[in-house]
Amino acid sequence: MGNFSAIDISASGLIAQRTRLDAIANNIANANTTRTEAGGPYRRQQVVFRVHREEDAPLSRGVEVESVVESDEAPKIVYDPSHPDAGPDGRVALPNVNIVEEMTDMISATRAYEANVTAVSAARSMASKALEIGRG
């Protein structure tokens, strides 16, 4: 596996974590959305990753986003008869988004993104040093 393969693998991680961060940002932005086009409250989005392999290669070629799915967790029900989306019993279905969990996931995704940036930088540095050695 050469340096360019290492860069490709890290680049796939960068793309995957960017998608994860986009989903987290969307969850935070919609944490209070009680009415969507599909009806009902917003449902938390989760990114599903899978290992990217080529058929003829035994080793992983990185990670890729398999899908972005809606959580099947039930919405939070609160009593707020003054809310415009309250039912006749005064209850409102709120999104199943937990801000603390989203912030924790954001930190994790940011750290993974930073690790991939570091790996790309190291591979780039090694390739640069190899070219210097070849010239001298």
Q: Going across the major beta sheet, what is the strand order?
A: 1-2
Class by alpha and beta content:
alpha+beta
Q: Topology as H/E string?
A: HEEEEH
Number of domains: 1
- Tell me the fraction of residues in β-strands, as a range: 15-25%
Number of strands: 4
Helix content: 40-55%
Integer-rounded radius of gyration:
21 Å
Label the overall shape: elongated
Which secondary structure elements does this structure contain, and how are they paired or packed?
Elements lengths: L2 H27 L15 E9 L6 E11 L5 E4 L11 E4 L4 H37 L1
Antiparallel strand pairs: 1-2, 3-4
Helix pairs in contact: 1-2
Structure overview:
This protein is an alpha+beta fold and 136 residues long. It has one domain. It is built from two helices and four strands. The strands form two sheets. The chain has a two-stranded antiparallel ribbon with strand order 1-2. Strand 1 and strand 2 form a beta hairpin. Helix 1 runs antiparallel to helix 2. It starts with a helix and ends with a helix.
Structure characteristics:
single chain, 136 residues, alpha+beta, 2 helices, 21% strand, elongated
Produce a short descriptive summary.
The chain has helices at residues 3-29, 99-135; strands at 45-53, 60-70, 76-79, 91-94. With 136 residues, the protein is an alpha+beta fold.
